[in-house]
Structure formats: structure tokens, C-alpha cells
Design brief:
Strand content: 5-15%
Structural class: alpha/beta
């Protein structure tokens, strides 16, 4: 710290996004990374798979590691890389162990499975050079209409969420060879919102008593388990702070509640500062200053990193922030880098990645977890397992024409019933196409409908899109017994009470598609 100028100290608090792509060193994008890492000296990077709001392909593990090695060569202070690894590193990286969503783990009723996910995530994250895991989600999803947390949460029960949050943290520490940092998010609890904070700021209108008995329970458990960092939420909580101030920028919430009352001494990291919940109300510089004043340590993805640094420097000059406040945050972040060994080894062994990432035995166990999660919550007439698969029409309702949703479901059905009628539909199809699909089912005695509804940033809701709700109503109107399978949002089934059977998988990953088919076929 003594060797760093004030500007360099402030820069160390900034974490910039990267996609893990292979970049030509002469490209403008690469040169910008060189500037921010070598010259500006930012403290770290966050792996994302979007660009200007557009979802991009997941990165290859070797490409991520090779890029980070290049950046580490440029960095005077080792960079700390982070990732939103909510389903293991497979959330952002191809070729890794694919886990179902958190709610599927909660549905198993067995936190030891979440502990296993923690073990694998720690090993695979370290293998590609990313020691900071932005997980577990400590939000209690007690609002069925939540468009952004939903299946990312372990569930509706604060005790279940707390048990799984603790188990994940413990799992990451099972092997001391793979030291990582864990992050409980999104403080003080994002589960009771109906607004996507990527778009706008949300408000939690709960009393302090309710917050203590519900939202804060998993965070207290995380602190008890020794969680390394806690991520803030871009939500207003009138019971704790002024109604127009998001938690990310609130001294009452970050310092008063989290630091002083709850006793958390680890890293407070902001959620992305480019999200609408912050960016629509504050400039890049002002958000950075206010977050530090509130008590945050790491500033994640400010829209303009250099403007943020400049604003914080100005705030120190005019007394809004002190040098001691900057040093306090910097000390936490440097200590974390030391704790995961970046002072001794900052580079990734590219040769070792293939042996550490995507082990077949890990994937096999992840499949078992997806199967343990499945719940048949309604089964009139014992429709499931299907008695006559050959006389059943299978329909998949995907969220996009370009999505791979339903492909694994269809393959698994055809493996078990070669001549089965499988009809793939999606939100882009006009009513005429969907009407034709309804006509096709005339020869079928029963229906099995796999409806996908996933959580996605900047979408705003989880409802079935296009004409698909009308299609479901038309299918139910035929009077044929229907097994409705919710792949993803379990609350989707509330809208279709006439379905004879209802199955929940709590995830949209291919593992859950296979698990659903196995249940349909009595396997």
C-alpha cells in the first residue's frame, strides 16, 4: 500500500468486466484492457457473457485462463478475477460441470449436495484463474412474482436458504488446495421484489421485524460460516433507510446494519454499477463516491471506470471521503488477494485445466442432483408415469426460436419411444402455427407439455411469451389429460389449474430436461 499513489489505490477498488474471449492484441478492445490494467491499474475483473446488453457465447476455459494470464503479466498488483458462478462455473464457461439452479438444490432437501457443488465450483474456478465466486445467493424468494431472483434462490424458507448458503461456503473450503472467496448476495435481501433491478430500482416494503425473521436470516448464517464477501442489492428498504436510496449507496444499511449491527468485517462488494437500479439515477462517478461513503469496498463494473476514479479522487480532495476510508477498503481487498495466494502464484497452469474442469464423475453426480430435485405436485388419475407413451403427444415450449431449450427433452423422449410425437414450439410462432399444433394432437390420448421459463437480466418478467399462454389454454380445452412440466419458474403452474398432473424441476438446464423425461417414463 505504501508504494501506491492515491489514484492507484482508488483504481484498485475498481472491477471491470471481461468476456474471456481470445482478442487480437491490436484490437481496440484489447488495447482498452491494456490501458485499464497496466496504466490505470484497476484491482480486478469480472467474467461476463454479454456485450452492450446482448448475450454472447460462453467462454472456453482455456481462453479465459490465457486471457487472465496475459492481463496478470501487465498488472503491477495481481488482479483478482471474479465470476457469477451460480450454477458452478458453467454459468459463464463452456465445458465445465453443469449444475441445476439453486432452487433445485433447495428442493432436494439435502444441503450435502450443495456442499458438493461448492467443492466442484472452487476447483473449477481456480483452474481457470478466477478465485472470487459471486455465490451463494442468500435471497429468500418469498415473492412468487420475482422476475430476477426466483430459481436463483434456494427457496422460500429462510432456514432452508440459510442451510444451503452455509453448505456451499463449507464446500468451497473442503480442499485447501483450491482457495477461493465466497459471496453472499444480494444484501439485505432481494427475494421480495417484483422488479428486475437491471432495469429499475426495486423497493422492499417490509418491517424491520420481518427483515430480521426472513431476509437477514441467511446473511447471518453466511457471516457465521465465515463468508468472505457480501454483495449489495440495488433495492430501497424504507424500514432501514430513505425510500429513494438503494442499499448499495446507503450508509445506514452497509455500515450501520451490516458492519456495526451484524458484525461483518469482510469485503462489501457492490452489484454491477451499470445496472439500471443505479445507472438510471446516478452518474458513474457519483455512484462510486456514494457507494464508498456507504461502506462498500469493491466497485463492480462502473459504466466509466476512469470517471469513477476521477470522482473518488475529487471526493477525497474536497473531504467527502478520507484517505483512511480508501485505505480501509484497499487493505481488505489486498488481504483477500493474499488469502487466495495471488501474491505467490498469479498465473494459471493451462496444461492442468483439462484435468480439473468438467470431470465426468462430477457431471454424473450433478445429473443425480437434478433428478433428486424433481417434484410431482399433482397427479390426478396417476397420469405420471405415462401408461402409453406411444399415444402421448410431447410438446416443448421454448422461450426463443434460437434457444436450445427442449432439444434434450426431445432426444430423451425419442430414446425411450422412437416413434413418439414431439412438437417443438416457441414464443416467436404466430397463432396460426400454434393452432396447427393443437390440431396435430387429435390422435393422442394424453399430453406432456414442457414449458420453459428462465430468469434473465433485463427481461422484466417470467411469464410465458408470445401466444404460448393461449396455446396452453387451447390444449387444456381439448379435454385430454395433460402433464404440465415447469422447466424453470415453478410458479408458472399457478396459471393452469386444469392440468391433470404437474411436475416441477426448478431449473432449465439440460440435466433437468433429462430428469423430467425419466420421471415421465417411470425411471
Amino acid at each position: 500500500m505504501k508504494a501506491l499513489t492515491l489514484r492507484e489505490k482508488v483504481a484498485q477498488l475498481i472491477y471491470i468486466p471481461f468476456r474471456g474471449a481470445t482478442l487480437n492484441t491490436r484490437s481496440r478492445e484489447y488495447r482498452q484492457f491494456v490501458k485499464l490494467v497496466r496504466d490505470v491499474r484497476v484491482g480486478g475483473m469480472v467474467l461476463v457473457n454479454w456485450d452492450n446488453g446482448r448475450v454472447t457465447a460462453k467462454a472456453h476455459p482455456h481462453a479465459v485462463a490465457a486471457f487472465l494470464n496475459r492481463m496478470q503479466k501487465l498488472a503491477r498488483v495481481p488482479l483478482l478475477a471474479a465470476g457469477d458462478f451460480e450454477r458452478g462455473i458453467s454459468m459463464r464457461v463452456d465445458g465445465a460441470t453443469v449444475f441445476p439452479h439453486a432452487m433445485a438444490f433447495g428442493a432436494t432437501g439435502d444441503p450435502s449436495l450443495t456442499r458438493f457443488e461448492g467443492e466442484v465450483t472452487a476447483r473449477e474456478a481456480r483452474a481457470i484463474g478466477i478465485p472470487w465466486i459471486f455465490f451463494p445467493v442468500a435471497d429468500v424468494n418469498n415473492n412468487p412474482g420475482n422476475p430476477i431472483i426466483n430459481i436463483r434462490s434456494f427457496g422460500e424458507d429462510p432456514k432452508v436458504v440459510a442451510a444451503n448458503v452455509t453448505a456451499f461456503i463449507e464446500g468451497t473450503r473442503a480442499d485447501p488446495h483450491y482457495k477461493v472467496l465466497t459471496t453472499a448476495k444480494h444484501f439485505p435481501g432481494h427475494g421480495d421484489t417484483n422488479v428486475d433491478t437491471h432495469l429499475n430500482m426495486a423497493v422492499i416494503n417490509a418491517t424491520r421485524e420481518r427483515l430480521e425473521s426472513l431476509e437477514l436470516v441467511p446473511f447471518r448464517a453466511a457471516i457465521q460460516a465465515g463468508v468472505d464477501s457480501i454483495m449489495t442489492a440495488h433495492i430501497a428498504v424504507p424500514a432501514l433507510a430513505p425510500a429513494d436510496v438503494p442499499a448499495t449507496l446507503s450508509p445506514a444499511i452497509l455500515t450501520g446494519l451490516l458492519r456495526e449491527q451484524m458484525g461483518f468485517q469482510g469485503i462489501i462488494v457492490t452489484d454491477s454499477l451499470e445496472m439500471g437500479g443505479i445507472a438510471k439515477g446516478y452518474s458513474s462517478g457519483e455512484a462510486a463516491v456514494l457507494a464508498l461513503q456507504a461502506g462498500a469496498d469493491a466497485l463492480v463494473m462502473p459504466p466509466d471506470p476512469e470517471a469513477a476514479i476521477k470522482a473518488v479522487m475529487a471526493a477525497v480532495a474536497d473531504g467527502r471521503l478520507t484517505r483512511a476510508r480508501i485505505d480501509e477498503s484497499l487493505a481488505r481487498l489486498l488481504a483477500a488477494k493474499e488469502r487466495v495466494g495471488l501474491d505467490r502464484k498469479r498465473f494459471v497452469d493451462l496444461e492442468a485445466i483439462s484435468d480439473e474442469v468438467g470431470a465426468p464423475e462430477d457431471q454424473e453426480r450433478a445429473q443425480q442432483i437434478a433428478e433428486r430435485a424433481v417434484k410431482v405436485v399433482k397427479n390426478d388419475g396417476n397420469l405420471i408415469p405415462l401408461r402409453a407413451p406411444a399415444k402421448t403427444c410431447f410438446l416443448t415450449l421454448a422461450e426463443s426460436h434460437y434457444s436450445s431449450e427442449g432439444q434434450e427433452f426431445a432426444q430423451q423422449v425419442r430414446r425411450r419411444a422412437k416413434d413418439a410425437s414431439v412438437i417443438a414450439l416457441d414464443t416467436s410462432m404466430p397463432a396460426t402455427t400454434l393452432d396447427a399444433a393443437v390440431a396435430k394432437i387429435a390422435a393422442c390420448d394424453t399430453l406432456a407439455v414442457a414449458a420453459f421459463s428462465s430468469v434473465g437480466a433485463y427481461r422484466g418478467d417470467l411469464a410465458l411469451g408470445g401466444e404460448l399462454p393461449h396455446l396452453l389454454e387451447a390444449l387444456l380445452a381439448t379435454g385430454k389429460p395433460m402433464a404440465l412440466i415447469a422447466l424453470g419458474d415453478p410458479y408458472l403452474v399457478r396459471n393452469y389449474p386444469k392440468a391433470a398432473a404437474v411436475m416441477l424441476t426448478y431449473s432449465t438446464v439440460p440435466l433437468s430436461e433429462e430428469a423430467a423425461v425419466k420421471v415421465l417414463f417411470g425411471q
